Amino acid sequence: xxxxxxxxxxxxxxxxxxxxxxxxxxxxxxxxxxxxxxxxxxxxxxxxxxxxxxxxxxxxxxxxxxxxxxxxxxxxxxxxxxxxxxxxxxxxxxxxxxxxxxxxxxxxxxxxxxxxxxxxxxxxxxxxxxxxxxxxxxxxxxxxxxxxxxxxxxxxxxxxxxxxxxxxxxxxxxxxxxxxxxxxxxxxxxxxxxxxxxxxxxxxxxxxxxxxxxxxxxxxxxxxxxxxxxxxxxxx
Length: 236
Fold this sequence. Notes:
The structure is a single chain. By secondary structure, this protein is of the alpha/beta class. Helix content is 34%, strand content 25%. It has 2 domains: 1-77 and 153-236, P-loop containing nucleotide triphosphate hydrolases (Rossmann fold, 3-Layer(aba) Sandwich), CATH 3.40.50; 86-152, no CATH class. The chain has helices at 40-47, 93-100, 104-108, 110-120, 137-149, 167-182, 194-200, 218-222, 225-232, and strands spanning 2-11, 14-24, 29-33, 55-60, 63-64, 78-81, 155-159, 186-190, 203-208, 211-216.
């Protein structure tokens, strides 16, 4: 499905990602973990077409995306839930959701998609007319994820979905992410909550200082002393 080979992204003279290679199969749930400043958002934005690739290859179903305009990445079945949600706060919840189905293929299925996302997030049913900016942080994150699902993606990119949420809401958010994946949507999850990300992922990558330093199953990574010390707070 998604292939990222020896990816490099620069901001001017500064290189943010070096020689990064990851893959995601159809229907897979993969997480990328790492400290602040490791390049996680840069990576997910590159896969979404928001960052220009300096070197390497990005492909979806074998089709090279390197020179595809960013606004056409969604047509390849890729949707992103960005860090910080980036809702149109003065617009209603319903209007935000409808924007997610802008693509012609998604627009045809708009009503069915709306019904589906309201099944996933029933708390939004009574808030459809409310300005998105009046919702709680947890509800705004629900809108951001639902908006991306309205595009009917095959690959959903999630950038720090638990950031700033109450612990009880975080648990619900991870349950929903698992449910979305089990429905057949592949998920790439970028997350600082390492323990919970590894709990739901099938495979994981560790990104540090712009490079992949480790990859494997969550169990493999949990058995590495460096990972346990750096990300789970364990000593020894």
